[in-house]
Description:
CATH class of the largest domain: Alpha Beta
Number of domains: 3
Shape: elongated
CATH topology of the largest domain: Rossmann fold
Distance between the termini: 35 Å
CATH superfamily of the largest domain: Succinyl-CoA synthetase domains
Structural class: alpha+beta
Number of strands: 18
Helix content: 25-40%
Radius of gyration: 26 Å
Largest sheet: 6 strands, antiparallel
CATH architecture of the largest domain: 3-Layer(aba) Sandwich
Amino acid sequence: MRMHEYQAKQIFKKYGIPIARGELATNPDEVKEIAEKLGGKVVLKSQVLVGGRGKAGGIKKVDSVEEAVELAKKMFGMELKGHRVEKIYVEEQLDIEREMYVGFTLDRANKGFALIVSSVGGMDIEEIAIKHPDKIARVTVDPLFGLWDYQIREVLYRSNMPKEYQKEVSRIIKALYKVLIDHEAELTEINPLIVTKDGKIIAADARLNIDDNALYRHPDLKDMKDYTEIDQSERIAEEKGLNFVKLDGNIGVIANGAGMSMSTMDLIYLEGGKPANFCDVGGGATSDVVKEAMNLVLMDKNVKVIFVNIFGGITRCDEVAKGLIKTFSEVKVDIPIVLRLAGTNEEDGRRIIKEFIKENNIKNIHIVETMEEGAKKAVELAR
Length: 383
């Protein structure tokens, strides 16, 4: 779950991380009211869940209330990297002396969190690493032991952080780590962390990505999720308890288990096709779950064929067959379905499907023996 800048800043503020004054606006009138309150010289920040907003024209500085209103009228409703701007964060302008970077992200290779610090900021961290390798440093923080002071001193020293900023930056790093741990986040960063001309250090931007699998422990965060920023099929999948990710291909995939789903997608790619989605119905999927998964995949008008690949362990193949029959009984399915059933009750599952096909004279269900055969058939039909 990615949070908007204004949401992340609300959390950062609670942890003592200094931020600039600002408020959220949903229309030009609110922009005017907030700009007047902040003295006219403000920054208009489009609140969309994409990186590089500034380069794409989503962040603008203005020097008067009138200019803020006129610009807001143009920004509201504009498309920014495929996202419609419906909210603008209006923030006071700051006199910037220097930009820096501080962030934490998952370090899976080392089974911890990577603390990354740079004495320059305001650009992508990858760009900083290329242009200023001597001004960036990282260490791995073991979550079992937590963040140690010596690790902070190490990255501050190796990143050539000026001594006069080190005490405050160290305090902000500690607060940021607490945000990370308390909210079970996958990433949290401040880019840029700025030094103003009068010597204040302020988080000029804020990013906070929460682990979706931990949201059940954080109902307050779940309520902050912006569903307008994600594909609606993914929202429905979340409500139905399905693991679903929309992709840009034309072959729908339904499988049981993340590994099986990924393997199915790999085989489709190897055969020259492109999956339209990742859809994992999980272990022990009932007929109702299979029906919901079918309906979800059928929502995508780009899908030309659906490959249902089930290896029954906990999942029973006869339950999968009943779910498919429910779908065909309730929804008109015009596209081909490639079906592979193997494992628990596979004979019953195939018998149920074959009887249904015969009784209803259905022509668009293709039963295959192996997943390799199924992937090849799905790609052929999609073409």
